[in-house]
Write a structure and sequence with these properties.
mainly alpha, single chain, 0% strand
């Protein structure tokens, strides 16, 4: 065996070992949550409201609340993210506004989510005088925007120049080339980033503590406190009561399955 093959084999072995080491924490977390959470999963747990300690109950209001808040955040954040990405890719230049917008997007992507929660609390919750799901959706949408914007920009920039030249040769207007052709080719990046953003905000707890807070009842209005799986897990895990801690593990399992399902969906879509 020559030196080149020995080096290739050595790199392959080291890469495999490092990959396995990196996968251990993830597998450990999944296995731990599965073992501790599977015992509480039942039809009552998934379809009923929370109840006092020792009286059963479930987390249905938190499941519905999470879906409502996340959907509202996506409705606000995804269009803004796509529009920003389209502008940065196709219409921006070296003007001060373009540079400032790009810096804002990159800065927003690194802002801690708790800061965004405090921001939404200061401009919405304090002004209207009570916690509301609208403020939660607003805070989470700010997390979504830079994710979608950067993915859209990079996806559109990766479109081959031949496609642009062909569309220009046909005499098509700039906006049709941008929206129907270039964005159409880059749609996989937009869809993938949208699903990843949904998974990302499904794990955010801090912004919800400052905005939607929690409710033990069914969601009745967007302009009131609303339950979510993230805050329910936080409350129950910190309660110290074994029954509620077990429910926190069950809710964690549901949240983990939601995120894993989204990742599997992304991989199947991209095949």
């Amino acid at each position: 065996m020559n030196i080149r093959k020995i080096k290739d084999l050595l790199i392959k072995i080291i890469s495999s070992i490092v990959t396995i080491i990196m996968a251990i924490p993830l597998l450990w977390i999944i296995l731990d949550v599965l073992i501790k959470g599977i015992s509480i999963i039942s039809l009552e747990f998934l379809t009923s409201l929370p109840a006092p300690i020792g009286e059963g109950g479930g987390i249905a209001n938190a499941i519905i609340g999470t879906l409502i808040i996340n959907t509202m955040a996506c409705i606000i954040g995804i269009p803004l993210g796509i529009a920003t990405g389209v502008y940065l890719s196709e219409y921006s230049d070296n003007s001060k506004f373009s540079i400032l917008l790009r810096n804002i997007i990159y800065t927003l992507s690194g802002v801690p989510s708790i800061i965004l929660g405090i921001f939404a609390f200061s401009i919405i919750v304090i002004r209207i005088g009570h916690y509301t799901a609208i403020a939660a959706a607003f805070a989470l949408s700010i997390i979504i925007i830079p994710i979608i914007a950067k993915a859209t920009e990079e996806g559109m920039k990766a479109v081959p120049i031949e496609i642009r030249e062909g569309a220009i040769a046909l005499g098509l207007p700039k906006w049709i080339i941008t929206i129907k052709i270039i964005l159409g080719v880059a749609k996989n990046s937009v869809i993938t980033s949208s699903l990843l953003a949904f998974a990302r905000i499904s794990g955010e707890t801090a912004p919800l503590l400052f905005t939607a807070l929690f409710s033990n009842y069914w969601p009745r209005s967007l302009n009131e406190p609303m339950a979510s799986l993230q805050v329910l897990i936080y409350n129950y895990a910190m309660s110290g009561f074994e029954a509620w801690v077990t429910k926190a593990w069950g809710a964690s399992l549901l949240l983990l399955l939601l995120v894993l399902s989204i990742n599997i969906l992304i991989r199947r879509y991209l095949r």
